[in-house]
């Protein structure tokens, strides 16, 4: 069930993905060669934040899809 705590809009989902991926970066930096993935994640976060700042909906969609691809 979709509730108020989990709205399904890009405006709500993208900041959640930014926060989630930001929490992964220190974990990746703590493992050997994890700095490579951490660097990719940081570039993705920068792109997401730039898309938000520019109010670029296409860039925000791309950034959201990119961030969703990161996991442990």
Please, could you describe this protein's structure?
There is one protein chain. This protein is elongated. The longest helix is centred in the first third of the chain and has 20 residues, at 10-29. The model has no long low-confidence stretch (mean pLDDT 92). It has one domain (10-68). The chain contains three helices and no strands. Helix 1 (10-29) runs antiparallel to helix 2 (34-53) and helix 1 (10-29) crosses helix 3 (57-68). It is mostly helical and 72 residues long. Helix content is 72%, strand content 0%.
Short recap of the structure:
By secondary structure, the protein is mainly alpha-helical.
Fold blueprint:
Elements: H1 10-29, H2 34-53, H3 57-68
Helix pairs in contact: 1-2, 1-3, 2-3
Keywords:
72 residues; mainly alpha; 3 helices; elongated
First-residue to last-residue Cα separation: 27 Å
Assign a percent range to the helix content.
over 70%
Structural class: mainly alpha
Number of domains: 1
**Series of secondary-structure elements, N-terminal to C-terminal:** HHH
Average pLDDT = 92
How much beta, percentage-wise? under 5%
Q: How would you characterize the largest beta sheet?
A: none
Shape: elongated
How many β-strand runs? 0
Low-confidence spans? none
């Amino acid at each position: 069930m979709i509730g108020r705590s989990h709205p399904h809009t890009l405006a709500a989902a993208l900041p959640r993905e930014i926060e989630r991926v930001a929490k992964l970066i220190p974990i990746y930096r703590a493992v050997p060669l994890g700095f490579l993935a951490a660097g990719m994640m940081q570039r993705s976060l920068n792109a997401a934040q730039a898309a938000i700042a520019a109010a670029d909906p296409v860039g925000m969609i791309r950034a959201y899809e990119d961030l969703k691809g990161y996991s442990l």
